[in-house]
Amino acid sequence: MHTIDLSSSVDASGWEPDPIVHEIMTPAEGARHMSEEMKLHFGLDFDPSVLPDGELLSLDTLTLTSHTGTHVDAPSHYGSTGPNGRPRNIDEMPLDWFLRPGVVLDVTDAGTGVIGVDRVEKELARIGYQPRPLDIVLLHTGAARHAGKPEYFTEFAGLDGPATDFLLDLGVRVIGTDAWSLDAPFGHMIRAYQETGDTSVLWPAHFAGRRREYCQIERLAQLDELPEPFGFRVACFPVKIAGAGAGWTRAVALVDE
Questions:
Q1: What is the pLDDT of residue 257?
Q2: Pairing between strand 136-140 and 174-177?
Q3: 203 partner at 20 to 30 Å CA-CA among 33, 41, 58, 237?
Q4: DSSP for residue 52
Q5: What is the value of pTM for the model shown?
Q6: Torsions phi, psi of 21, nearest 5?
Q7: 102: how many CB neighbours lie within 10 A of its CB?
Q8: Which top-rank group of organisms is this from (predicted)?
Q9: How far apart are CA 103 and CA 100, in angstroms?
């Protein structure tokens, strides 16, 4: 078995609508910090200069949203109500959803906009595979090439409502994408609404989660490195953040040799 990293980095040097703040405390600063904290909280005196090179440990402090980098959206992200009443948070989701057979759908020809049922069915027919209950379906839109740039948030394709329901009808409970969102870009959805007056074009993939419990993985990467469209497993356990609507994940494909 070998592994393929499907995760994008949390990188403060890249462009984000909600900027990442990454503060790094050096090992020398960490030694002084530890000494001060021991004095403050435990009344212990310790001279950090006795440590080798006066250093202890580095420390990273980050300010970011739970939707930065590759992450899993929980049902509570989609709204305040769900099919069973209160929607579950990320720390309440069943772990066995997140280690499952995977299938990747190449929809890189979709451009910017929506991906409908016809396009999903066409790709499934091309690869000769029908998702089974609890399979993890990954959408390779090609959007990852824009990661770290403003275009990443405006130029991609997302599922429409019927396409989302189509996959959920098959028993899929985790749908992933290499794009910023499983829905189409904000601008595309809002223009479609303004032109038609149809509110169903607004965040249909996310809002499907108010009716049917499921999770999304957003901001995946390197889906083009998967050697085959199926026959691999995906591990994407979300970080256990109590009461949160999402949790970061180091998504990995497990490919048997």
A1: 85
A2: parallel
A3: 237
A4: G
A5: 0.94
A6: -110, 120
A7: 26
A8: Bacteria
A9: 10
Q: What is the DSSP string of 86-149?
A: SPPPGGGS-GGGSEEEEEEEE-GGG-SEEE-HHHHHHHHHHHT--PPTTPEEEEE-SGGGGTTS
The amino acid at 79: G
* Interstrand relation of 215-218 and 157-159 (parallel, antiparallel or unpaired): unpaired
CA distance 257 to 254: 10
- For residue 119, how many C-alpha atoms fall within 13 Å in the half-sphere facing its CB? 21
Hey, is 73 helix, strand or coil?
strand
118-121, long-range: CB within 8 Å, 24+ apart, which pairs?
A: 119/163, 120/159, 120/163, 120/166, 120/167, 121/166
Contact call for residues 252 and 5 (beta carbons, < 8 A): yes
* Cβ-proximal residues to 105 (8 Å cutoff; 6+ apart), any chain: 120, 123, 124, 127, 137, 138, 139, 140, 229
Task: Identify residue 26 by its one-letter amino acid code.
Answer: T
Amino acid letter for position 216: Q
Pairing type for strands 113-115 and 59-63 reads unpaired
